[in-house]
Structures are given as structure tokens and as C-alpha cells.
Hints:
- The structure holds two protein chains of two kinds.
- Chain A is of the alpha/beta class.
- Chain A has ten helices and ten strands.
- Chain A has two domains: 2-79 and 157-250, P-loop containing nucleotide triphosphate hydrolases (Rossmann fold, 3-Layer(aba) Sandwich); 89-155, no CATH class.
- In chain A, the strands form two sheets. Chain A has a six-stranded mixed β-sheet, with helices on both faces.
- Chain B contains nine helices and no strands.
- Chain B has helices at residues 2-18, 25-39, 44-65, 75-114, 117-124, 128-166, 171-179, 185-210, 216-245.
- The relative contact order of chain B is 0.17.
- Helix content of chain B is 83%, strand content 0%.
- Chain B is elongated and about 70 Å long.
- Chain B starts with a helix and ends with a helix.
- Chain B has one domain (27-245).
- Classes of the chains: A alpha/beta, B mainly alpha.
Amino acid sequence: xxxxxxISKVFGDRKILSEVSMYLETGxxxxxxxxxxxxxxxxxxxxxxxxxxxxxxxxxxxxxFTDMDYEKKKELRREIGMLFQGGALFDSxxxxxxVAFPLEMFTKMTKAEREERANFCLKRVNLTNSNKxxxxxxxxxxxxxxxxxRAIAMNPKYLFCDEPNSGLDPQTSIVIDxxxxxITLEYNMTTVVISHDMNSVMEISDNIFFIFSGQKWWEGxxxxxxxxxxxxxxxxxxxxxxxxxxKKRQH
Amino acid sequence: MxxxxxxxxxxxxxxxxxxxxxxxxxxxxKRLSVEIELIGVDSxxxxxxxxxxxxxxxxxxxxxxxxxPLIPSYAEGVATRDSMLLEFSPTIISLILVGKVGSSxxxxxxxxxVTEQVDALQIMGxxxxxxxxxxxxxxxxxxxxxxxxxxxxxxxxxxxxxxxITESVSTTKYIxxxxxxxxxYYVVYALTKxxxxxxxxxxxxxxxxxxxxxxxxxVGRSSTKAVVYSTIVIILFNLxxxxxxxN
Lengths: 251, 247
């Protein structure tokens, strides 16, 4: 579980995050939603330490991440898997080498063992026969699946996904969403997903956090979301007049 | 001024992160061999062609200018040898390598940065500077002096071939001139400069590539900056090293 206590971040004179607190549960898909520019990505980068917070604390299962030195942060990061928006696969490595990279770096596995584990992870994300291809030879959806396979290769405790559906068609999006959900339950991970795809939110989220103007504006479950009358949240969830009309009829 | 100091500070901080013990030596040596191939082996043809032709041109120009009967007839050989050893091979070849190798390093790291590959390494718990930059610097410092040594030799060979083709200087006189008053220290001087320039070109280019932000446009800009700043720093250090080593 990850506890976030009053984190703030300022870039120049722009306040990006303002005293955001959250409790992200283990074995659940914790979804962070919000408009573009609301501060979601900065929030995620603060969580994994790619951006330093100006104030507040982040606790990973009782370990204060904000107080850790570089070496300790490095150790904790080995428990983290991350799925980047564009996949962030290493161009110079094949699909299999990408998945095996963290294993080669941090374990004493033999080449055969690494290959076996990489193949297992690739099979888990339903990718076979692509092992020897390079990232520029596979589709966007396949890249996301390779990135998930790489993220789970080290059996992480925490999985962070930055807009996993961006650039994917609706069908592939659902495949990726379901994969994230299945893996979260299978490995009992604390999963944090950033998204503004409401299909994903309604499909896989357990807890939903709405960020608005750098603040945590609302939190709840899918059922709470459908019932909520919070104006900013409703404007985000039902952006078009068609959706607003739909909501009225539902009520 | 503050901007220069900020960049200088960030550059030295990057070097401090780069010069740490690699996570796994096996992976470091694997990357080192790849970088040696990219920086050194892939530059062999360019350096060879340039050196051969430059040696020939220096010989022809010297022969054209040395018309005074008081100048000994072997002077063209001496001029070609010393020009290649003292300046052309270590400095000009390094500047040419800035254009080839430096821009390639900056583009590679810049692209990795903007496509979040550097972030992915960091999230995995890898020190990205050590993993990406250190092999480039070590490879450059190891292989570029060899390229320079080869350039010196080929430049002199180029002069020799020019004596055969143009007959502007007699081959025997040229060979005599090459051997006349040879100072082995010039080779040490050239290799010292080559090592320092190799360090500058790989580290300054890495710095600009690693700190690229934004998109494709910024990658291009970082590549340009890498070439411009590496060139300026090399020219500056050329003066400093010449003053120190040939005093």
C-alpha cells in the first residue's frame, strides 16, 4: 500500500500539486483521473521519484520514500514496475531482451533462465512469436504489452501505468485494461493507473481519485462516481451535452 | 555568466554520477564494446580518407611555398610530419569527430530522454548516467587516441604518395625529411591532446543529449549544442595544452 501525505509541487510560479493526500490500496487498481494539465503525470512522477516533491511525504508499505537517499530509492525502485505512455522500450534491444533487461541487470540468473522468465512474461501478456523483433517492428498495442511484460519481469509490488490506453483503438485498450487488472490481482500489487479514458475507469478501477487544478478534488468507487453530483467531476465525466442528457435520464 | 556556471555545475554533477561503479561489470563491458565499435571502428574510413588527403595536400602546399634556395630540400617532409603530428591529427581530426561522434551521442541520448527510455532505466533502479554515459566516455578515451595515431601514420603516407604522383618533391628527400630531427615527444604530446579531446567530446555531447527536454526539435537542438560547445571547449583546451606541454 502507498500512503501519500500532503504532497505539493511548484514549477516556477505555477503550482502544479497542492497538498495532495491519498491512500492507495494493495491488490486494487487505483485510478487517477483528471483533465489534461491537471497535474496527474507530475503526481505520478513524484510518486516514483522522477520529480522531487516540494513538501509532503510518500510511504511505501511503511517506508518513507521522500526521506530515502539515492541508493535506498534505487533499491525500492526494483520493487516498482512502470508502464510509460509510449512504452519506453529500449530501441537497441529486441522484445525478449527488453523484457530480460532488468533480470540481467539485477539477478544472477543464467541466460537460459532469463530467456525462460522473459518468455513466461511475454506469454502472460499474450505475445508469442515476437521475441526477436525490435520495438520499431511491432504495433503500439504490442509495445504496451511488451512494456507490461518488462514491468512484471521482476515480480514488482507496485505497478504504475501512465495513460496505458493512449494511442490505442478501443478493442486493444480493453485488452490492455484487462491485462492490468488481471496482473494486479494475480501478483497482489498496488497498481496506480493514470487515465482520462472513462471506459477504462468504469472497466477496471477499484478506487478512483479525481485531480482538479492540482488538488485531490474527489475520491470514491465506480458506484460513487455514477452517483456523484460534484460539478467539476460531472463536467469531466459527462463532457458532452449528449452525456449530460444521458446522466439526467439515468437519474 | 550564471547560466554558464549552472551548466558547468550540472556537467560536473553528471560526471560524478557517471564515474561510479557499474551495476554489473559484464553489462558495462558489453556496452563498452558496442561503443568502441560505434565511436572507433565506424570512424576508421572517414579518418583514413581525411588523413591521407590532408598529408598529400600539406606536402604539395609546402613544396609550392618553399621556393627559397636557403630552405633545405627535405623541409617539405619535416613540415608534413610536424603538421600532422602537432596539429592536424590530434586537433583537426578530433574536431571532425565532434561532428560525427558528438552529434550521434547527443541525438542518441536525447532521443532516449524524450521517449522516456532514460526514465524507464531510472525507475528500474539503474543509474542511467553510469549505464549510458560512462561506456561512451571510456570508449572514446580508449579508441580515439588509436584513431589519431593511425591518422598521423596515414597523413605521412599521404605525403609520400603525393611525392610519387606529383613529383613536386623527390621521394628520397621526403623520406629524409620525415626522419630528420624527429622528436618522439611530439607523439606523446599528440596522444595526450587526443585523450583530453576524446574526454571532452564524449562527455560534453553526452551532457547535452542527456539533458534534452521536449520533442524531436529539442533533440536536434541538443545535437547542435553538443557540436558547438564541444568544438569551443576543444579549441580552448588545445591552447591550454599546447602552452603547458610545449613550453
